[in-house]
Amino acid sequence: MKLRPMAALGLVALCAALTAPSVPVAAAGDTIVFGSAVSLTGSLTKEGHLTQEGYDFWKSYVNAHGGLKVGGKSYKVDIKYYDDESKAATAASLAERLIDQDHVNFILGPYGSGTAFTVAQMVERKKIPMVEGNGAAEKIFSQGFKYTFAVLSPAPRYLEGILDVAHSQKPAAQSVAITAASDPFSQEVAAGAAAWATAHGMKVVYNNKYPENATDVSSIVSAVKAANPDVILNAGHLQDALLVHKGLKEQNVQARAYGYSVGPDTPDFTGSLGKDANFVFGGAQWSDAVKYRADRPGFYATAKEYAKAFDAVYHHRPDYHDAESTATCLAFQYALQDAGSLDPDKVRDALAKLDVTTFYGILKFDSRGMNVYKPMVTNQIQNGKLVTVWPRGLAEAKVEYPTPPWGQR
After folding, report:
1. What is the mean pLDDT of residues 210-238?
2. Residue (of 257, 334, 326) closest to 296 by Cα position
3. Which of 10-24, 37-51, 125-139, 277-291 has the lowest mean pLDDT?
């Protein structure tokens, strides 16, 4: 069937509308609106709420200090949230809704690498910048995406510090067992730990995965016990860490050190495990022991200042999920100021060129959009308190090693 000229023009216009970016360059009502699908329910709810805390803390600060000045004009900021229920596909659908229906200006990332990956695909199609602080898997950044940036160190580095601690003791730890969830982030963490251990002469005596969202890891724990390692590491999330650690106690698996990629820094870890949490190590993107000083105005200059102000609002010490989420917003803040515009492409270009030091550390991205410039730290739970113990220059306390038997912690 032949289209009449006017109908053909209408079809062309419709196709253009479907492929064009959906977010207006102007901010409605002098407010810059960010959108985020966050895990407020589901298996990642604890981490999701920490992410939201970090975002909201930044929003409150900016609005209490006259707004965000962009191109000579001051704007209030707001954040539109949806609950992705800890489901990657849901997060992508909600991100599309935030862009197409709610007309948010920019996207703040979700929690989790799998979820961030699906949202990254969405923002790439829509050509809307997303900065995220809770998806460290390098898989996200090996696709050639141009609109996604991450403020956190890559996943393979999460457990390196714990291994460095154990390897530096006298006598040095000689062997390691690694358990990992099957999601991309956890697998990258496990691979990075195995590579570091092998490169430093440590024997990897066990390295296996279990299904994502597993509820029974007893067979994995039994295999770790049979391997009899000096160091036991888990690559996963909070619920994985709790499940594995409880399983290790139930089967009386004794090691010189226990470490987790995610878990020890969250308030729920010690709350759930009590004294059994003592001596446990955790890889961390940040702690309030870091010595960075911001080189730009517009927010708290040091980690200590940030932590004190955060605690006054939320009544708990900020963990690294809180801090990296706040840093996500700061990346947007400085990119918007550098761009002097709300145009998505100009802001994207400003993010790509960003090089700034904040309370959280260096915010700078490589050609993939990853922040490979900020090191991680290692924390340990001592007498129920989380303290930074590595690297030595940041240590708030001496490393407690080796771990005493169960029941003596």
Report:
1. 97
2. 334
3. 10-24
For residue range 33-49, list pLDDT tens digits in order: 999 999 999 999 999 99
The structural architecture, per CATH, of the domain 22-155+289-364 is 3-Layer(aba) Sandwich (3.40)
pLDDT band at 28 (very low <50, low <70, confident <90, very high): low
In angstroms, the CA 108 to CA 373 distance is: 21
In the chain, where the domains are located? 22-155+289-364, 157-285+378-394
Q: How far apart are CA 58 and CA 61, in angstroms?
A: 5
* pLDDT surpassing 90 at residue 82: yes
Residue 191: exposed, middle, or buried by beta-carbon count in 10 A (0-12, 13-18, 19+)? middle
Nearest by Cα to 388 from 165, 150, 112, 148? 165
Looking at the DSSP bridge assignments, the partners of residue 390 are 378
Residue 17 has pLDDT above 90, yes or no: no
Contact 397, 382 (CB under 8 A): yes
Amino acid at position 117, single letter: F
Residues 209 and 190 sit within 8 Å (Cβ to Cβ): yes
Q: From CA 364, how far away is CA 366, in angstroms rounded? A: 7
Pairing of strands 385-390, 175-181: unpaired
The architecture (CATH level 2) of 157-285+378-394 comes to 3-Layer(aba) Sandwich (3.40)
pLDDT of residue 20: 41
DSSP assignment string, 292-319: -B-SSSSS--BHHHHHHHHHHHHSS---
Residue 157 has pLDDT above 80, yes or no: yes
Three-state SS sequence of 95-151:
HHHHHHCCCCCEEECCCCHHHHHHHHHHHHHHCCCEEECCCCCHHHHCCCCCCEEEC
